[in-house]
Design brief:
Rossmann fold, elongated, 6-stranded parallel beta sheet, SIR2/SIRT2 'Small Domain', 9 strands
Length: 287
């Protein structure tokens, strides 16, 4: 059995199919999976250089915090309108057939859930919720959007059409003039509000990491799709799978830090590759 001619490297594609066939998979996804939904990644070959805001900057400097919320208020509208692409739908189909046991995603865009995948760990959180760092109350990003609109009348119109603005994977938008933006405080206690996502310099909750390790252990192989594995947050699961002796297949345009541990590496796009796998991978034997 061979893959359809959808890959630039037919030999690697055939080897990947051979490695994955008959095995139950845990899938680790990154920003490269969502580029076909119109959400650019941080480290792809064609991505502009970016310096994401750190947790320390956000909590320690009101100017950084204002700048972030102004940009997020623009970028959130773009991510909110994004829709799952063929790669997301392929993983949902593979889960429905018992090939995929679950997805660990480094993305915060919720496109896996919108595509219908049921067993998803949002490793870095989710863009649609906001938490107070003082009292812990969680509100929806939709609620906060209404408050920010009221506090900043005409702001969205002043920065131009969202389609013309560069958007980052965490819903940050590249706009420069934010000095006049008013930030909303927690309505309950007046504390700092922060998107319920994991910032650079912030740790993923230990309980979430433990669930992700358990998901890797529950499968027979690890499939990485659209991640450069630059940060340890994702790379640790590749190392864990390798230590356990699980085969690892990586699909990514460009090199990744996990390449030395990969059983097969495909330098290819995720949408077409996952779609191909969804039509060719057999269901694993029933246990």
């Amino acid at each position: 059995m061979t893959l359809p001619a959808l890959q630039p490297d037919d030999d690697a594609a055939a080897r990947a199919l051979d490695v994955l066939s008959g095995r139950r998979l845990t899938v680790l996804t990154g920003a490269g999976l969502s580029t076909d939904s119109g959400i650019p990644d941080y480290r792809g070959p064609d991505s502009p250089p970016r310096t994401p805001m750190t947790y320390q900057q956000f909590v320690g400097d009101p100017a950084f915090r204002r700048h972030y919320w102004a940009r997020n208020h623009v970028g959130w509208a773009h991510v909110h309108r994004a829709r799952p692409n063929a790669g997301h739908r392929a993983l949902t189909a593979l889960e429905a057939r018992g090939v995929v046991v679950g997805v660990i995603t480094q993305n915060v865009d919720l496109l896996h859930e919108e595509a219908g995948t049921r067993n998803v760990i949002d490793l870095h959180g989710r863009y649609d919720r906001v938490i107070c760092l003082s009292c812990g109350v969680v509100i929806s990003r939709t609620q906060l959007a209404a408050r920010l609109d009221a506090l900043n009348p005409g702001f969205l119109e002043s920065v131009g059409h969202v389609a013309d603005i560069e958007i980052a994977p965490d819903a940050d938008a590249v706009i420069e003039s934010t000095a006049h933006f008013t930030v909303a405080a927690c309505e309950r206690c007046g504390g700092l509000l922060k998107p319920e996502i994991v910032y650079f310099g912030e740790n993923v909750p230990l309980e979430r990491v433990a669930r992700a390790y358990a998901m890797v252990d529950a499968a027979d192989a690890l499939l990485v799709a659209g991640s450069s594995l630059t940060v340890m947050s994702g790379l640790r699961f590749v190392r864990h799978a390798a230590k356990a002796g699980h085969p690892i297949v990586i699909i990514n345009r460009g090199p990744t830090r996990g390449d030395p541990l990969a059983t097969v590496k495909l330098n290819a796009g995720t949408s077409e590759t996952l779609s191909s796998l969804a039509t060719t991978l057999p269901s694993p034997p029933q246990s």
